[in-house]
Amino acid sequence: MPDWFGMKARRTAEEERSRERALAWSAMLDVSTRTPFLPKADANDLDSSYIATVVVDSGPIINSLDALGHGLVDLNALFVAPLIEAAREVRVLAEMRPAWIQYCDEHSPAPTGLSRNTALRYINGPAMRTWSRAEEAKIATERAEQSLHRLHPALVEFYGFDVTGRRAA
What is the CATH number of the domain that holds 92? Predict the structure, then answer.
Protein backbone atom coordinates (compact mmCIF):
# COMPACT_ATOMS: atom_id res chain seq x y z
CA MET A 1 0.00 0.00 0.00
CA PRO A 2 1.42 3.43 -0.87
CA ASP A 3 2.53 5.69 1.96
CA TRP A 4 0.59 8.78 0.82
CA PHE A 5 1.16 10.86 3.89
CA GLY A 6 4.74 9.81 4.66
CA MET A 7 3.76 8.09 7.89
CA LYS A 8 6.28 5.27 7.53
CA ALA A 9 9.17 7.66 6.93
CA ARG A 10 8.09 9.82 9.88
CA ARG A 11 7.78 6.77 12.14
CA THR A 12 11.23 5.50 11.08
CA ALA A 13 12.83 8.89 11.85
CA GLU A 14 11.16 8.92 15.29
CA GLU A 15 12.41 5.39 15.95
CA GLU A 16 15.96 6.40 14.99
CA ARG A 17 15.85 9.44 17.31
CA SER A 18 14.50 7.24 20.09
CA ARG A 19 17.29 4.73 19.51
CA GLU A 20 19.87 7.54 19.53
CA ARG A 21 18.51 8.74 22.90
CA ALA A 22 18.69 5.20 24.28
CA LEU A 23 22.30 4.87 23.11
CA ALA A 24 23.12 8.28 24.63
CA TRP A 25 21.59 7.12 27.92
CA SER A 26 23.65 3.93 27.84
CA ALA A 27 26.85 5.84 27.07
CA MET A 28 26.12 8.40 29.79
CA LEU A 29 25.48 5.60 32.29
CA ASP A 30 28.76 3.85 31.43
CA VAL A 31 30.74 7.10 31.46
CA SER A 32 29.19 8.21 34.78
CA THR A 33 29.58 4.96 36.65
CA ARG A 34 32.91 3.61 35.44
CA THR A 35 36.28 4.37 36.98
CA PRO A 36 37.70 7.18 34.77
CA PHE A 37 34.77 9.43 35.69
CA LEU A 38 34.50 8.63 39.39
CA PRO A 39 36.34 10.87 41.86
CA LYS A 40 39.67 9.63 43.17
CA ALA A 41 40.76 9.74 46.79
CA ASP A 42 43.72 11.92 45.80
CA ALA A 43 43.23 13.81 42.55
CA ASN A 44 46.97 14.49 42.28
CA ASP A 45 48.02 10.85 42.53
CA LEU A 46 47.02 8.15 40.07
CA ASP A 47 47.78 5.01 42.01
CA SER A 48 48.45 1.70 40.30
CA SER A 49 45.17 0.07 41.36
CA TYR A 50 43.22 3.01 39.94
CA ILE A 51 45.04 2.80 36.60
CA ALA A 52 44.45 -0.97 36.46
CA THR A 53 40.74 -0.37 37.10
CA VAL A 54 40.57 2.24 34.34
CA VAL A 55 42.21 -0.14 31.86
CA VAL A 56 39.70 -2.87 32.81
CA ASP A 57 36.73 -0.47 32.60
CA SER A 58 37.82 0.89 29.21
CA GLY A 59 36.29 -2.11 27.41
CA PRO A 60 32.64 -1.46 28.34
CA ILE A 61 33.09 2.30 27.95
CA ILE A 62 34.45 2.08 24.39
CA ASN A 63 31.65 -0.33 23.48
CA SER A 64 29.04 2.23 24.58
CA LEU A 65 30.81 5.12 22.87
CA ASP A 66 31.15 3.15 19.63
CA ALA A 67 27.48 2.11 19.73
CA LEU A 68 26.44 5.74 20.17
CA GLY A 69 28.76 6.85 17.38
CA HIS A 70 27.29 4.29 15.00
CA GLY A 71 23.72 5.17 15.99
CA LEU A 72 23.96 8.93 15.48
CA VAL A 73 21.03 10.55 13.76
CA ASP A 74 22.13 14.19 13.95
CA LEU A 75 25.80 14.52 13.08
CA ASN A 76 25.66 18.16 14.19
CA ALA A 77 24.58 17.38 17.75
CA LEU A 78 26.65 19.18 20.39
CA PHE A 79 27.95 15.93 21.88
CA VAL A 80 29.46 14.59 18.63
CA ALA A 81 32.83 16.38 18.89
CA PRO A 82 33.38 15.41 22.57
CA LEU A 83 32.19 11.88 21.72
CA ILE A 84 34.81 11.51 18.99
CA GLU A 85 37.53 12.87 21.26
CA ALA A 86 36.53 10.61 24.18
CA ALA A 87 36.29 7.55 21.95
CA ARG A 88 39.78 8.26 20.59
CA GLU A 89 41.28 8.54 24.08
CA VAL A 90 39.39 5.59 25.62
CA ARG A 91 40.29 3.40 22.63
CA VAL A 92 43.97 3.78 23.54
CA LEU A 93 43.19 2.21 26.92
CA ALA A 94 40.87 -0.39 25.42
CA GLU A 95 43.66 -1.49 23.08
CA MET A 96 45.93 -1.96 26.14
CA ARG A 97 43.28 -4.03 27.91
CA PRO A 98 44.04 -7.44 26.31
CA ALA A 99 47.76 -7.05 26.99
CA TRP A 100 47.01 -6.08 30.59
CA ILE A 101 44.73 -9.09 31.09
CA GLN A 102 47.34 -11.40 29.58
CA TYR A 103 50.04 -9.90 31.82
CA CYS A 104 47.88 -10.45 34.91
CA ASP A 105 47.15 -14.03 33.87
CA GLU A 106 50.86 -14.74 33.43
CA HIS A 107 52.31 -12.87 36.42
CA SER A 108 49.83 -13.09 39.24
CA PRO A 109 48.12 -16.12 40.67
CA ALA A 110 44.37 -16.37 40.42
CA PRO A 111 42.79 -15.28 43.69
CA THR A 112 40.90 -18.00 45.49
CA GLY A 113 37.15 -17.75 45.36
CA LEU A 114 37.06 -15.62 42.22
CA SER A 115 36.27 -16.85 38.76
CA ARG A 116 39.09 -16.55 36.22
CA ASN A 117 36.90 -14.22 34.17
CA THR A 118 36.04 -11.88 37.02
CA ALA A 119 37.17 -8.33 36.29
CA LEU A 120 38.25 -7.92 39.93
CA ARG A 121 41.13 -10.25 39.20
CA TYR A 122 42.65 -7.61 36.93
CA ILE A 123 42.44 -4.72 39.38
CA ASN A 124 45.91 -5.42 40.58
CA GLY A 125 48.03 -2.47 41.70
CA PRO A 126 51.27 -4.39 42.37
CA ALA A 127 51.12 -6.01 38.92
CA MET A 128 50.43 -2.61 37.31
CA ARG A 129 53.59 -1.19 38.90
CA THR A 130 55.69 -3.91 37.24
CA TRP A 131 53.93 -3.87 33.86
CA SER A 132 56.14 -2.55 31.06
CA ARG A 133 53.31 -0.32 29.76
CA ALA A 134 52.37 1.17 33.15
CA GLU A 135 53.61 4.68 32.33
CA GLU A 136 51.82 4.60 28.97
CA ALA A 137 48.64 3.48 30.77
CA LYS A 138 48.97 6.34 33.27
CA ILE A 139 49.25 8.95 30.52
CA ALA A 140 46.35 7.39 28.60
CA THR A 141 44.27 7.37 31.81
CA GLU A 142 44.84 11.07 32.38
CA ARG A 143 43.86 11.89 28.80
CA ALA A 144 40.78 9.65 28.89
CA GLU A 145 39.64 11.21 32.17
CA GLN A 146 39.83 14.70 30.71
CA SER A 147 37.93 13.79 27.55
CA LEU A 148 35.23 11.88 29.46
CA HIS A 149 34.75 14.85 31.77
CA ARG A 150 34.12 16.99 28.67
CA LEU A 151 31.75 14.42 27.13
CA HIS A 152 29.54 13.93 30.18
CA PRO A 153 27.98 17.44 30.28
CA ALA A 154 27.33 17.27 26.53
CA LEU A 155 25.48 13.96 26.97
CA VAL A 156 23.53 15.42 29.90
CA GLU A 157 22.57 18.41 27.78
CA PHE A 158 21.41 16.15 24.95
CA TYR A 159 19.48 13.75 27.15
CA GLY A 160 18.10 16.34 29.58
CA PHE A 161 18.89 14.34 32.70
CA ASP A 162 22.04 13.39 34.55
CA VAL A 163 22.26 9.83 35.87
CA THR A 164 24.35 11.15 38.76
CA GLY A 165 21.17 12.84 40.05
CA ARG A 166 21.46 16.39 38.80
CA ARG A 167 18.93 17.83 36.38
CA ALA A 168 20.18 19.35 33.13
CA ALA A 169 19.68 23.09 32.68
Answer: 1.20.120
